[in-house]
Amino acid sequence: MRTKGIEWAAANDLLSKAHNNTAKRITEELNIQYELFYNDFIKSKGIEEEMCKLLEIGVPKGKTMLAGSVAFAVRDANGMKVAYYGIKMKDGKSVFHNTFNPEFYLYNFCNIDFSEPVYFTTDMFRCIYNIANGRQCVCNFGLPYLSDTHLELLHLVDRIVFLVDEPLVKPLAIQMAENKMNYFRFE
Predict the structure, then answer these.
(1) How many domains does the chain have?
(2) Which of 29, 83, 140, 173 lies in the 20 to 30 Å Cα band around 165?
(3) What is the bridge-based pairing of β-strands 69-75 and 81-88?
(4) Which residue in 97, 103, 67, 76 sits closest to 85, CA to CA?
């Protein structure tokens, strides 16, 4: 929106057309297991080593497409591991295999208790920090919008608390209202 000087709807359309990813929902469990290690970069994000072990987060050893990245094991809504998602430590850019489409998943959704409030953020590290501090939190892998699948998943939740930066508040509130979502608020 800022780069092109356009409104939310136009930016969403532009990104959707540019992204035009042919990836589908993954139906088979991922059979890759990275050896992940904890480092000072992850520690600087306020995430403890025990949490990384629990959620399969870390820097992969060896030569992989996620080299130089913090890798996050991604599970579908049923808990099946479907991919690894990475964030480059150097510049914060996303890295993932082209068969993984982040629009089909919400990070940590498989661990949600629907009777409790669910916190939502677009920042993976903020999501992990909130999980470590006892909040049920999900993340949409840094996308500046909610996809149709994200909205379908969030429809299952009674109370949603958004932890997003100011520029996303209005567009997400509009999207939630248009989709007649349950109770939601912004913090």
Answers:
(1) 1
(2) 83
(3) antiparallel
(4) 97
